[in-house]
Design brief:
serine-type endopeptidase activity; alpha/beta; EC 3.4.21.53; seven-stranded mixed beta sheet; about 850 residues
């Protein structure tokens, strides 16, 4: 049998999860046989548990407290609150734990048990100290056993005081006395307290009817002129905590007891009045709302009868027609809207089809049919906006200005698709915003990175539950014009799944020949996207499908050199961080030298996102210093920069030199980088060629081509023709943990092998890039801007580039080519002439 909880309705039940112990100032323990002898002494008039179960309907008469009370009684602990002599309440106890106690109680003629409040003590925590000295003797009536519980009516009789213990183990048996309660009913103070308590009870009765039931039980047993029971009754009907009530129970002088009861009663009155006020307020609000609802319904009926009101269906139709008044809706779309409005007029408002049709019309009428914004085709304004928002990127700005200038003659710049390609953090998204601001157009951006469902582009069909239009229709609804600037961010990260191919869905969107009649599956009407200026962003072109890439005009953002980063930090990043933290420039003084050190030692990537993070670290550390040291200003210089950012992450790149060592130039998604290549002769026992450095398939092919070309042309370049016949050569690209691939290292690898064979080192800062064929042709490569920036970052100002990339180099801005000596090579002989003379 499992334990049962207290009966919440009465707050006086026995906790079934706790056991019982006892308390006495000087407990006297007796043998177990003395308790058994006591039970035998009263066994003649006994009744057992079976009698009570079978005779459960029998109602015992309520006995008077003046009856003879036993000197020895069994104890029952309670935990919520103490039991008072003035109470008559049902109790529910756990059958498994207290079955033996109740059976022995049934063997007694008086059927009286002692109830003692033990507080929150658990089963294992009960001890002699847990039991109070004063408890209440109760008469047990109508005992019934059901399943795992024992129920009975407890009639409070009189206080008892534990004299000594007869049994420490359950069933607990104690010898008790019944102390007298000193009272002077004629005393003026006592009468005053009694009147105050009676008045308090009168205040409680109208507030809560439950107090009236308690009062009936009390009046059936006691006279209102008895101050002792009156105080007990007043304490029993309060919701005070158990310890406070036990203090009242243990107070024998009636006058003192009444002094303790009166504050508890007063508090109960205040709580009951507050609860009553809250209930009245809630009821008043509910009644007011119900009244308003009924009046509104009556008003609707009256207006409908008089023909001066409309129902929900008519309101919806009027709302949709009102939206179309200022729109220039194409004829085919207007025809569809009229059909749906007619359909809406015959549907019941509660039908699912009504909701579907209403949502469809809501979308159709919310779109900005025929509404366009005027373009600001002012080149001076465009330059001002671009220069204000961006430092550097001169070639990108010029390309955008050309793009806008072309639109001036056409009359608009719609139907164009611009693709901004560059490493992370170079400002692709912000350039798109600047284009929109320069044109005076609304801007809407959504990322297509990771998009796997083509319905995100072309919408869901209306047959599906929860169908919605695609992102483009949602963009039109938000910007409220038909010619916004829409940015498709991270277009190189589109996904594919069983739900479709979003990249293929974009073909119709981004093709000027097709997007004049773009069809969204949800709307199922043709829309004109030709006035939209689409701006796409990507980090790399490799993952963009060819047909999609063919529809876009590419603008590359290669990244920033140190000088450009300094300007960006001064004009944009640093002021933005200070403004965000509500700091003035005078509070944190960042020197120019320290800013350059941050760029060179902590944020060397192509973009400026890492630079912004490092500057934010400086601001955070500086604010801590100002608060902890009570400083007004903080100066950040080269000398104390490490206090804010720690040791530099990057060291100055040292150009490797030596026989067989060449510095190549590579392009990565993070920008340009120098790529040292080492060739070494391992031994002369046998011919062999080994590659290391985690090279991809393309670079491995380049290395094999370089090895074959060098092997076949050693004599032509003045090297020992038999060098490789007995040489095991190892070609290595350092930083082997980093994957490397791409068709731009052939020239560098050939130069490294030729340097090894000629025993001639390259002793000057020189970098090169280009792919080589078996016949010695130098092929063009990409990323010339990024590679030149990487060379300058490593203080290399002499580079070798393929002749076919001359046009790319000449398009670079002057501040990148200033001080750089460049050699263009059409065949490898041109490279060898520059390197070896």
């Amino acid at each position: 049998m499992s334990d049962q909880d207290f009966d919440n309705e009465f707050d006086n039940d026995v906790d079934s999860d706790n056991d019982v112990d006892s308390e006495n100032e000087a407990p006297t323990w007796v043998a177990e046989d003395e308790a058994s002898a006591y039970e035998q002494e009263h066994s003649d008039d006994a009744f057992d548990e079976q009698e009570y179960r079978s005779d459960g309907e029998k109602v015992h008469s309520i006995v008077s407290a003046r009856d003879m009370l036993p000197e020895r009684i069994y104890l029952l602990p309670i935990h919520n609150r103490p039991f008072f002599p003035a109470q008559v309440q049902p109790l529910v106890i756990n059958r498994e734990r207290w079955e033996e106690t109740m059976r022995r109680l049934g063997n007694t003629p008086h059927h009286t048990i002692g109830v003692a409040f033990v507080g929150e003590a658990g089963v294992d925590a009960l001890s002699g100290d847990s039991f109070p000295e004063i408890g209440t003797a109760v008469k047990v009536h109508k005992l019934k056993s059901e399943d795992q519980q024992i129920q009975f009516i407890a009639q409070g009789l009189q206080r008892f005081k534990i004299k000594r213990w007869l049994s420490k183990e359950p069933p607990y048996l104690v010898e008790v006395t019944y102390p007298k309660e000193p009272v002077d009913a004629e005393n003026e103070e006592t009468r005053a307290y009694a009147m105050a308590i009676i008045n308090g009870i009168k205040e409680l009765l109208p507030i809560n009817p439950l107090y009236g039931e308690e009062l009936k039980h009390y009046l059936n047993r006691f006279s209102p002129n008895q101050p002792g029971p009156l105080a007990d009754f007043a304490a029993a009907i309060t919701s005070a905590k158990g310890p406070a009530l036990q203090d009242v129970l243990a107070t024998l002088p009636v006058a003192e007891r009444m002094q303790k009861v009166l504050p508890l009663l007063r508090k109960e009155i205040d709580v009951a009045q507050l609860q009553s006020e809250i209930s009245e307020q809630v009821n008043a609000q509910m009644q007011e709302r119900q009244r308003e609802f009924f009046l509104r319904e009556q008003l609707k009926v009256i207006q409908r009868e008089l023909g001066i009101s409309k129902d929900d269906r008519e309101n919806d139709v009027d709302t949709f027609r009102a939206r179309l008044e200022n729109l220039t809706v194409p004829e085919r779309v207007q025809t569809r809207i009229d059909e749906e409005l007619n359909k809406l007029g015959v549907l019941e408002t509660g039908s699912p089809e009504y909701g579907t049709t209403r949502n469809y019309l809501d979308w159709l009428t919310c779109l900005p049919w025929g509404i366009t914004s005027d373009d600001k085709l002012d080149l001076a304004h465009a330059r001002k906006v671009l220069d204000r928002d961006h430092d550097g990127l001169k070639d990108v700005k010029e390309r955008i200005i050309e793009f806008l200038a072309e639109g001036t003659f056409k009359g608009d710049v719609g139907g164009s698709i611009v693709l901004l390609v560059g490493p992370p953090g170079v400002g692709k998204t912000s350039v798109g915003r600047s284009i929109a601001e320069a044109l005076g157009r609304k801007f809407y951006r959504f990322s297509v990175g990771g998009m796997r469902d083509e319905a995100e582009i072309k919408g869901h069909r209306r047959t599906y539950i929860g169908a919605m239009p695609g992102k483009l229709v949602q963009a039109f609804k938000e910007v409220e014009v038909q010619n916004p600037v829409i940015m498709l961010d991270e277009i190189d990260k589109l996904g594919q799944s069983f739900q479709g191919d979003p990249a293929s869905a974009l073909l119709e969107v981004l093709d000027p020949e097709q997007n004049v009649d773009f069809l969204d599956h949800y709307l199922d009407v043709r829309m004109d996207l030709s006035k939209v200026l689409f701006v796409c962003t990507a980090n790399t072109l490799d993952s963009i499908p060819g047909p999609l890439l063919d529809r876009m005009e590419q603008i590359r953002l290669a990244g920033y050199i140190a000088e450009e980063k300094v300007a960006i930090a001064k004009h944009h990043l640093w002021p933005k961080l200070l403004k965000r933290d509500n700091l003035s420039k005078k509070r944190i003084n960042l020197t120019d030298a320290a800013l350059k050190q941050v760029i060179e030692g902590y944020a060397r990537e192509a973009g400026v996102r890492q630079l912004e993070k490092q500057l934010h670290r400086i601001v955070r550390k500086a604010t801590v210093k100002m608060l902890e040291n009570d400083q007004e200003t903080v100066k950040v210089s080269v000398n104390n920069l490490e206090e804010f950012l720690g040791k530099p992450i990057f060291r100055k790149e040292k150009v490797l030199k030596g026989e067989g060592v060449v510095t190549g130039l590579a392009w990565t998604t993070m920008g340009g980088a120098t790529l040292p290549i080492e060739a070494s002769k391992v031994h002369a026992l046998d011919r062999g060629f080994k590659l290391t450095g985690k090279l991809g398939d393309v670079m491995q092919e380049s290395a094999n081509i370089a090895y074959s070309y060098t092997l076949g042309h050693l004599k032509e370049y003045g090297a020992d023709a038999d060098f490789f016949d007995s040489a095991f050569v190892h070609l290595h690209v350092p930083e082997g943990a980093t994957p490397k691939d791409g068709p731009s290292a052939g020239v560098s690898m050939t130069t490294a092998l030729l340097s090894l064979a000629k025993h001639k080192a390259i002793n000057r800062p020189l970098a090169m890039t280009g792919e080589l064929t078996l016949t010695g042709q130098v092929l063009p490569v990409g990323g010339i801007r990024e590679k030149v920036i990487a060379a300058r970052r490593s203080d290399i100002f002499e580079v070798i580039l393929p002749e076919a990339n001359r046009r790319d180099y000449e398009e670079l801005p002057d501040y990148l080519t200033e001080g750089v000596t460049v050699h263009f090579a059409d065949r490898y002989q041109d490279v060898a002439k520059v390197v070896f003379g």
